[in-house]
Amino acid sequence: MTARETLARRQREVLDDLLAGRVPAGFDPVGSAATTRVLHRRRSAAALHVAPELAQLPGWRDRFHAWAAAHPAEGCAHDDVRGFAASLARTDPDGLRLLEVHDGARRVAWIRIDGRRVLLVRLRDSVLRLTQRRRREPTTDRSPT
């Protein structure tokens, strides 16, 4: 193994450790924790760029960071979104449906965001979010004006 190959392998090991939240051998724990947060933030920002619908999921960034810590990066942000969506299938069916509409696997889906039902409709390259307005209670006390 050449020196270049050895260095590349060691760099990959360090990056994998940092992304998984582990402290690489010979590194400062405080600095490693800060670097891990930056790397997770950068990875989640890339995922949000390719799937802006993620922002509609409550607490998505914390859940994404927990998922990312257990799943080293293997590809691009689209791959991260697909992997994260697969993990949502077990815990958050609304999040999964939202990502399926984004990814083109579904054209229409009902989901709940912040306690409100939202109809997602995919039209070509955009996703429309339609919410039902809350009904106003009729007032019986009308004073003449």
Task: Provide the low-confidence segments as ranges.
Answer: none
The amount of helix comes to 40-55%
Number of strands: 3
Globular, elongated, flat, extended or rod-shaped: what is the shape? elongated
Lateral strand order in the biggest sheet: 1-2-3
SS element count, helices? 5
Give the amount of beta strand, in percent.
Answer: 5-15%
Arithmetic mean of pLDDT: 84
Query: What is the CA-based Rg, rounded?
Result: 22 Å
* Class inferred from helices and paired strands: alpha+beta
* Largest sheet composition: 3 strands, antiparallel
Features:
5 helices; 3-stranded antiparallel β-sheet; 3 strands; 145 residues; SCO6045-like_C; alpha+beta; single chain
Question: Would you summarize the structure shown here?
Answer:
It comes from Nocardioides flavescens. Residues 8-89 form the SCO6045-like C-terminal domain. With 145 residues, the chain is α+β, with helices and mostly antiparallel strands.
Structure description:
With 145 residues, the chain is α+β, with helices and mostly antiparallel strands. The chain has a domain at 3-99. Helix content is 53%, strand content 14%. The protein contains 5 helices and 3 strands; from the N terminus they run αααααβββ. It has helices spanning 3-20, 29-50, 60-70, 77-91, 93-103; strands at residues 108-113, 116-123, 126-131. A 3-stranded antiparallel sheet has the order 1-2-3, with helices on one face. β1 (108-113) and β2 (116-123) form a beta hairpin. α2 (29-50) crosses α3 (60-70), α2 packs across α4 and α4 runs antiparallel to α5. The protein is elongated and about 85 Å long. The mean pLDDT is 84.
